[in-house]
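Q: Could you fold this chain for me?
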Amino acid sequence: MWGASVERDNQSAADGSDGAVHRPVLPLEVLRALGGDSPATLRGCIVDGTVGAGGHAALLLAHCPQVTVLGIDQDPQILEHATRVLAPFGRRVRLRHRRLSQLDALLDRESPQRVVGMLFDLGASSLQLDSAVRGFSFQADGPLDMRMDPERERTAADIVNTWDEEDLADLFFYEGGETRSRKIARAIVDSRRRASFQRTAALADLIERTVGGRGGKLHPATKVFQSLRRAVNEEGDELLAGLAAAERWLVDGGRLAVISFHEGEDAEVKRFFVEGAARGAWRVLSKKAIQPSREESHSNRRSRSALLRVGERVRTSGGPA
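A: Sure. Below is the predicted structure, expressed as structure tokens.
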């Protein structure tokens, strides 16, 4: 019954005022991770470090009535959407335009009492991917931008047009897992001598011509676009800063839940928890990454590659303060 209630709330939270559906992934699993067996008794502040459209925050506020949420997001457009979604919860919610790397300083200033949970839902949201003007997707032509935070200076076009061939190849391979990275990088460098890349369609078309058509499940530009987005938004560094903030601020028994859609990010989170457990700072609550149910994978396409890991902060028995 509890799961059915969460699913109803999840569907409600997914329906935005613009008529689009933005369903948060792993809703029941996130609520169990942060709320435990009795979310109604949880008391304190939950920090949503990637509040996005506000779906996860809304579920936590609805099922944890004694909890407040401090939500941050680096994308001001997404934050406006979250503000509308979370308005019914009034003073129980505070939203701020910040990156994960700015979370520690923000918490110093806000001084929340008893941070009992943190949630990081990494990667791009459907709101970003579905907006051609943001340049995240090759599905529709748009400017080659990919900045989640418009205050960042470097765009995807800057990287594609200025990085040398070796650096591009390394980026596509290590951040995107693209095995044909050197062939693609060489083609980009050859092509940009004639004209720089400014639009997503031009880059996607070049990649498709370079490595072949769409015979597999993924568009041939998928991994290159993912790696560019990660580089533009410095996602690896942002994650490390967020993990460090979680270790500093969570109370004894407080929980951190991290959802990733990238194998490298998942490996980083796993390593953080394992090494933290060895130091006596964390208790690993997910020996293996938690994946969506078959039903959720079928009903919410974005959830299919989601991986959730959960750790519990330990400040007793010699654990770090």
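A (continued): Residues 12-20 have pLDDT under 50 and may be disordered.
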